[in-house]
TrEMBL record:
Pfam families xref list: GFO_IDH_MocA, OxRdtase_C
Domain of life: Bacteria
The organism of origin for this protein: Kitasatospora phosalacinea
The 4-carboxy-2-hydroxymuconate-6-semialdehyde dehydrogenase-like C-terminal domain, residue ranges: 132-274
SUPFAM superfamilies, alphabetized: Glyceraldehyde-3-phosphate dehydrogenase-like, C-terminal domain, NAD(P)-binding Rossmann-fold domains
Domain Gfo/Idh/MocA-like oxidoreductase N-terminal: 7-126
Molecular functions (GO terms): nucleotide binding; oxidoreductase activity
Descriptive protein name: 4-carboxy-2-hydroxymuconate semialdehyde dehydrogenase
Keyword Oxidoreductase among record annotations: yes
Coiled-coil ranges (or none): none
Length: 324
């Protein structure tokens, strides 16, 4: 593909994260949002009008059959991710799938196998690898100026009813382990540069209507000896989102999305770390660059697969009867 030719990307998913990707893609030179797909043609048309995209498609299959689409970004419901990822690859389209790649290890492995068969760029939306705050910490580690001893992470949302980030009713149920824990499990191994060798989890009561645990605690240890403590909740009625505390041998740092402060709450300027402060934009830039350069992207499906192996191990633990 010529570097002068626009990279034509279809965006599947007309929700909050679809809008984030649409905004990010508008800021990347040489990229055209060729089409948008949503849960219905009407909603796709509405989303396309909101985002300034000329074409709305009634189904992902329609997009995959189009010759004027080079790649697809999937910001669709989690239960669709694995099958849609494999469909994109089978149709000859590069694909970026939002986190999580799948909600089971066999499905994640099938996606990796499909990527290996096709040789196409297949990337996961593990955004924490790209947030400037986490990039700053990673550079300190790479320079030998910091060794991570512990990560303390809190992921807190209020989800006692099945609503999405926009406050709209969901047709599927989110999951603390397979979605929200995936961010931290992958980031811990990535930042320490060391595979996870030990993982434990406990969970609180299952919600009688949603059918999921609303509270969870995860402990991890890397081969380096570093440890991670992760607390997750859908019961939290207070500040929402995720905060990461890095405790190292030469300093303590707190990251919250694209912001970073020291352990003394002193702001750290991360504006020069990358071309943007928007982690989603940096993630999408990596996807575009990998396609243009014909290389494996950071957060390729193969690179993040160990995260899903750890999640599967934790799921098996959580399925065991209490006291067994």
């Amino acid at each position: 593909m010529s570097k002068q030719q626009p990279l034509r990307i279809a965006l599947a998913g007309g929700g909050a994260f679809g809008a984030k990707h649409a905004a990010a893609l508008r800021r990347i030179e040489g990229v055209e949002v060729a089409a948008v797909v949503s849960s219905s043609l009407d909603s796709a048309r509405k989303f396309a009008a909101e985002q300034g995209v000329a074409r709305a498609a009634g189904s992902l299959e329609e997009v995959l059959a189009a010759d004027d689409v080079d790649a697809v970004i999937l910001a669709t419901p989690t239960p669709l991710h694995a099958a849609q990822t494999q469909a994109c690859l089978a149709a000859g389209k590069h694909v970026q799938v939002e986190i999580p790649v799948a909600a089971s290890l066999p499905d994640a492995e099938a996606c990796v196998a499909a990527a290996e068969r096709t040789g196409l760029v297949a990337m996961a939306g593990h955004t924490r690898r790209f947030n400037p705050s986490h990039q700053w910490v990673r550079r300190r580690v790479a320079a030998g100026a910091l060794t991570i001893q512990q990560m303390d992470v809190q992921t807190y949302f209020f989800r006692r009813t099945n609503l999405n980030a926009l406050g709209h009713k969901r047709s599927w149920t989110d999951h603390l382990l397979w979605h929200h824990a995936a961010h931290t499990v992958d980031l811990f191994a990535y930042q320490t540069g060391s595979p996870i060798v030990r993982a434990n989890a406990v969970q609180g009561p299952v919600h009688p209507e949603l059918g999921i645990a609303m509270d969870m605690s995860v402990q991890l240890q890397a081969a380096s000896g570093a440890i991670c403590t992760l607390s997750l909740s859908f019961n939290n009625d207070g500040p929402l989102g995720t905060s990461f505390r890095y405790i190292g041998d030469t300093g303590t740092y707190l990251a919250r999305y694209d912001d970073l402060v020291t352990g003394e709450d002193e702001p750290i300027d991360v504006s020069g770390i990358d071309v943007s402060l928007d982690g989603i934009e940096l993630q999408d830039r990596e996807f575009v660059a990998a396609i243009r350069e014909g290389r494996e992207p950071n957060a390729s499906l193969a690179q993040v697969l160990p995260c899903y192996r750890t999640l599967a191990d934790l799921e098996r633990q959580l399925a065991e009867p209490v006291g067994a």
